[in-house]
Amino acid sequence: MNLPNKLTLARVFLVPVFMVLAAFTRYGTPAFSAGLSLAAGIVFAAASFTDFLDGYLARRDHLVTDFGKFADPLADKMLTTAAFIYMVVDGVCSPVVLAIVLFREFAVAGVRMIAAANGTVIAANNWGKIKTVLQMLSIIFYYFAAALAPASAISGVHLTTSLLCWAVAVVTALSGGIYLWDNRACFVNAK
Questions:
Q1: Rounded Cα–Cα distance for residues 191 and 174 (Å)
Q2: How far is Cα 41 from Cα 18, in angstroms, rounded to an integer?
Q3: CB 28 within 8 A of CB 154
Q4: pLDDT tens for residues 68-86?
Q5: Which of 75, 101, 76 lies closest to 87 in space, CA to CA?
Q6: To the nearest whole percent, how much of the chain has pLDDT over 70?
Q7: Are 186 and 114 in contact (CB under 8 A)?
Q8: What is the Cα–Cα distance from 95 to 121, expressed in whole angstroms?
Q9: CA 101/CA 85 separation, integer angstroms
Q10: What fold characterizes domain 3-188?
Q11: Are 78 and 18 in contact (CB under 8 A)?
């Protein structure tokens, strides 16, 4: 297994670590832990960095594999979806945003399964990468801002995070529509 694929797997293994930390931050309650929020943000940021690094190394060193084309976007989805679930629980992200994120991911996964059944592996497109970067930056903002902002700024953190989540919803829906359109031949050629 090459280094980019190992970095992708490392991201997968960081997901449960992030989830444990995020579960105990208790944002917006008297039991809120800024330290756990900061730790969750750091783990999420580190995992997000592996997304950049594995792609960069795979392209630079010509180590792009079918496993990487499949596992890299899957690892991203696991990481970001877990974060958005916790942000919904914390009340800073609308469940509608989470639904849009999930619907897009299910649709893309369906297209990839149809393509795989026909012997084709579809890599992420640029819109999917933009979507992922915006999702990751929004999540990183939330966990770091929640941890570092003074208590008097909690409403500002909440509002900014909510607006970022809606921006994510728009870009996610757009990227999903473009992905489905670009790969519409998969439906025509489906067995």
A1: 27
A2: 8
A3: yes
A4: 878 888 898 899 999 999 9
A5: 101
A6: 96
A7: yes
A8: 31
A9: 10
A10: Four Helix Bundle (Hemerythrin (Met), subunit A) (1.20.120)
A11: no
Whether residue 184 is predicted with pLDDT greater than 90 in this model: the reply is: no
Report pTM.
0.90
Cβ neighbours of residue 40 closer than 8 Å, sequence gap 6 or more: 18, 21, 22, 25, 143
CB atoms within 10 A of CB 82: 18
Lookup: tokens for 122: 């579809």
Q: Are 84 and 101 in contact (CB under 8 A)?
A: yes
Rg value, the chain, Cα: 17
As a whole number of angstroms, the distance between CA 110 and CA 117 comes to: 11
Closest CA to 80 of 59, 58, 104, 64: 104
Helices of type H across the chain: 3-23, 34-60, 66-89, 95-117, 126-148, 154-182, 185-188
In angstroms, the CA 70 to CA 68 distance is 5
Average pLDDT over all residues of the chain:
91
The model's confidence at residue 189, banded by pLDDT at 50, 70 and 90, is low
Residue closest to 9 by CA, chosen among 100, 86, 72: 72
In 3D space, the residue among 60, 58, 85, 62 whose CA is nearest the CA of residue 70 turns out to be 58
Tokens 């297994």 sit at which residue?
A: 1
